[in-house]
């Protein structure tokens, strides 16, 4: 069977030296119908390898219940890459970062108040073992040692940016080996002393991640690993966006120049990203580099990559291809035809369903003395509503939520009193309580768990309690709202709605094609098309349209549901034929 290893400064495949030219493409961010299109474009660029992470939380959404179907069909994706003549690098570590919700860790880990993450903590390792017992046997027949396309597997991910627990890293290494993972194992870290010292594992190839200053990065790697090939496992050729920011771009000529430096040095390289795709649903992550900072990632994962979010080659694609052609012979390959895009026009959303009138159709009420976070109630993503009663009279005082994770709409007797957002510290909501008392309702949105850094233990909802002045409030009624099933909603013809509500409409499609939803006049919420959660929108930007892949549509009638938190100028959306990422 084929073997892949290294000898001295060269990678060796079937006894021949090989330079790995790879691109990151996450199957879980692209609808399966488009996997082949993206992979063919990757090969046509001149790359010989595709790399992907594996998100644990998508594959084990509930402890002991596994999902490897549809967009989660990892085996199909890897098999397809092999059929197209591509090698595959898989990064199946428990933690992936990837700007993905909780860095790929399943939210149910946080139901255990004593859980420690990414370290030699036996309860965490027990969960990893259970996951590996299911995942790794699926990968084994796909290893190059078994005749498959997988040439290498990663142990953890950028661990030196987080910790230095060698017992933990070696546990993961041995967990892979004893389950038959007999291909090349590697780590990847930033090219800094502390990161390499913390993340390297004896007997495992070290690689580095960076976006510039290639020679300097590889010199640092050689200080720690002098007798091995040099590889940039993540060449950051673009970047991702947070809400409230400008859309990130990087000049094509700059990306090409750094690549030229790497290939001139004889390095192998993996583009991060070759094609970004989309954070559909509630799968976006967030950054929180300090205890007080919080920056959620937008729905688009365009990344200003070589292929756009919709899979179209960019100027960067052709600039990179030109550089690659200087060093290797690019085999002629027919590029897939451009995927058609259509503007289906304006669609009126003529039916509405207020959240307050549909709570019991979406969720079963839970009664607790104090607010509990989502994870303690068995909820992973979406929204959660808390309600209590404050007796009166009371003079004006401030409402405190300890601590809101992440964004809370506060209602007094059903009227919006204000919004508290962990990303905007210093906001205040003050009110007096009349003699008859008032009902306090807090609707909290999970905007995405932190995916990188020291503050990843990011429980959602209300994590401690709610105070009016100095007094903690008790006797709460809670409705978890993951919005995973909207079939119970009761819609009625549209009228004047105040507060969070669902808006539904239908539109006709004669020929399904890629399209984009523009929500002019809407504020913040989530969009579903034919039951598929496209992700979040927010007028604050930078992203102003949501991508709708053509395979989500069907000939004839299609349904769109918008869950809007604040209200809209007019209950209508527009389907346009181009993206607006800000």
Question: Which terms would index this structure?
Answer:
single chain; Jelly Rolls; alpha+beta; 10 helices; 582 residues; globular; TIM Barrel
What's the gist of this structure?
The chain is α+β, with helices and mostly antiparallel strands. Helices cover about 20% and strands about 30% of the residues.
CATH superfamily of the largest domain: Glycosidases
Q: Specify the overall morphology.
A: globular
Cα distance spanning the termini = 49 Å
User: Ranges with pLDDT <50 over ≥5 residues?
Assistant: none
What does this structure look like?
The chain is an alpha+beta fold and 582 residues long. Helix content is 19%, strand content 31%. α4 (122-139) links the parallel β6 (87-91) and β7 (150-154). The radius of gyration is 25 Å and the shape is globular. The mean pLDDT is 97. Pfam families: BetaGal_ABD_1, BetaGal_gal-bd, Glyco_hydro_35. It comes from Paenibacillus chibensis. Residues 500-558 form the Beta-galactosidase galactose-binding domain.
How are the SSEs placed, and which strands pair?
Elements: E1 4-7, E2 10-13, E3 16-18, E4 21-25, H1 35-45, E5 49-53, H2 56-59, H3 74-83, E6 87-91, H4 122-139, E7 150-154, H5 166-178, E8 184-189, H6 193-199, E9 205-210, H7 214-224, E10 231-236, H8 252-264, E11 268-275, E12 286-287, E13 295-296, H9 315-327, E14 345-348, E15 351-354, H10 355-362, E16 366-368, E17 383-390, E18 394-405, E19 407-412, E20 415-421, E21 430-433, E22 438-445, E23 450-452, E24 461-468, E25 471-472, E26 476-481, E27 492-493, E28 501-509, E29 515-518, E30 524-529, E31 532-538, E32 545-548, E33 556-564, E34 572-576
